[in-house]
Design a protein that fits this description.
Number of helices: 3
Distance between the termini: 56 Å
Number of domains: 1
Structural class: mainly alpha
CATH topology: Methane Monooxygenase Hydroxylase, Chain G, domain 1
Oligomer: single chain
CATH superfamily: Phosphotransferase system, lactose/cellobiose-type IIA subunit
Radius of gyration: 16 Å
Shape: elongated
Strand content: under 5%
Length: 105
């Protein structure tokens, strides 16, 4: 039972940090749309930090699996992976959009 709790905590870490990263990326774009590129860059940096935390949690699971201790696949695990991939995609798109807005300045 303790192992399931640890897995649930890791999965929730991925969800929380990925969700935070996505929100920060959107905030960055909103700042950029108003011409505040200093704040936009700050929010993107925070976004990267949140993604690093999510990746760290995901890496723990990958290392366990490579060591012969696979995690059971559950709906919440799939949900966490969806959140992470969505956050990564949003961050990449927002970064490109901000670059375009900077070029127009």
């Amino acid at each position: 039972m303790e192992e399931a709790k640890d897995l649930d905590m890791i999965v929730m870490e991925i969800i929380v940090h990925a969700g935070n990263a996505r929100s920060l990326a959107i905030e960055a774009l909103r700042f950029a749309r108003t011409g505040d590129f200093v704040q936009a860059d700050k929010k993107l940096k925070e976004c990267h930090e949140e993604l690093a935390e999510a990746h760290h949690a995901q890496t723990d699971l990958l290392v366990d699996e490579s060591n012969g201790n696979p995690s059971p696949v559950s709906l919440i695990m799939v949900h966490a992976q969806d959140h992470l991939m969505n956050a990564l995609t949003v961050k990449d798109l927002v970064s490109e959009m901000i670059a375009i807005l900077k070029e127009k300045e």
